[in-house]
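Much of what follows relies on a compact textual record of a protein's fold. Each token is a code from a learned vocabulary of local backbone shapes. The record below shows the convention in full.
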Amino acid sequence: MTGRVVRAALVFVAVLAFASCGKSGGASVGGVNVCAMTAQPDALFGPHAEGVTGAKLDAFAGSCSWRSADGRRGGDVVLYTAQSMGSTTPAEQLHHLAQAWDATTETPLAPVAGLGDEAQIATDLPGYQTQIVWRKGDKVAAVLAWSGDPAITGEALARRMAHATAF
């Protein structure tokens, strides 16, 4: 794995770990309010779901961490824009994330139809997580989801989150 791919994977994890800078109703800190981009979070995470907007770090324009009130479902959305990626193209950013995820799972990545211009899904990641990365025009988004709720799998939640995120 190249240093750039490792860096992209570590930055993704770091942003998700530090995504506690403000409630979803407020503006993000130095970036895009990604929580406001998720349609009907109660339908995804149940009543009283809480979204926390994260700070802009490195190549991220913004992020949002969602948790259900009962703690059985969770997901994170990270957005990259042309401005936040600098000289990295959207296709390169998607490739870097997909390659990093591919190195952490034995299940082959798969394309996701009907989601942006290009999309990949990684399943069976550590912690029973599913991650989806997709590109639409000059933006890239990544979703990480997990579920301990018998009513929905982490993969189904990730797919629903990706389709509910408008950018």
Strands lie at 22-23, 50-54, 62-67, 73-80, 110-111, 118-125, 129-136, 139-147. The chain has one domain: 3-71+91-120+136-164.
